[in-house]
Amino acid sequence: MATLHDQKDEPIIEIRGLRNSFGEQVVHENLDLTVCRGEILGVVGGSGAGKSVLLRSIIGLQHPDRGEVEVLGENMIDREEDEAHNVRRRWGVLFQNGALFSTLTVAENVQVPIREYFPHIKPPLLDEIASYKIAMSGLDPEVGAKYPSELSGGMRKRASLARALALDPELLFLDEPTAGLDPIGAAAFDEQIKELRDKLGFTVFLITHDLDTLHAICDRVAVIADKKVIAVGTIEELLELDHPWIQEYFNGPRGRSVKKGHDMAVTTGGGR
Ligand SMILES: Nc1ncnc2c1ncn2[C@@H]1O[C@H](COP(=O)(O)OP(=O)(O)OP(=O)(O)O)[C@@H](O)[C@H]1O
């Protein structure tokens, strides 16, 4: 039987030698990355470093020039559509803009993936599952009947989270989930993700620019620069490297103030 430690080391995403380009522009060259079961992996890098393109390569929305991408033990490159369809069922994605259908209520949005994969589920059960996912995402039950345009930015993120959780994913992809949220809303959202991960045991691939999020919930952080993942580790491990981007990012004025805030939170026993 696998021990907890073994499970933690079990690769859920394995990327080897990835190359992506758009015309003359090479975005990734020889990029390697392993994401392990149960971890929250933060992915950081400058604007345009290729974080979203990496996410799209993993979930099959971007066909790489070269390389291997294995997700949940399945090779994702050049798969037959029906096989890819089956793997997609095992993950949930929260896209940067939320990507909710504006003509559907929140509950109907949450039901979309369930209807796609389980067309025989009857409406009463669909409603029940949607209500459950909406509650899990920290929204009040009445939000299910609202349309995305009637929600605040934070509520829209949570509604998108409810939809990403619809099929009980083993793997959750989050693209800048706290972008545009106020600090209190962002901290609450981070906490929700961590609580759900602790309770449900899924793995999280989280693209973010938010230093607070990295400090608060990420087990490890992968840094993308120079077209590849230049380092993966805890923030403490990354800080030992003398790469200029890493030092500037974590030790620049914003990085220092986040760290100071966390040290204070630890000494006063509060904080996120
Ligand atoms: N469909 C596309 N066609 C052409 N170029 C693209 C396409 N998608 C992404 N790119 C380019 O690839 C590079 C990486 O884009 P990507 O969106 O992955 O960056 P990012 O690291 O997510 O940036 P940000 O933090 O600003 O969101 C950018 O230079 C972008 O212009």
Automatic annotation (TrEMBL):
Residues 13-251 form the ABC transporter domain. PROSITE patterns: ABC_TRANSPORTER_1, ABC_TRANSPORTER_2. The keyword tRNA-binding does not apply. The keyword Magnesium does not apply. GO terms for molecular function: ATP binding. It holds the Pfam family ABC_tran. InterPro entries: AAA+_ATPase (IPR003593), ABC_transporter-like_ATP-bd (IPR003439), ABC_transporter-like_CS (IPR017871). Keywords: ATP-binding, Nucleotide-binding, Transport. This is ABC transporter ATP-binding protein.
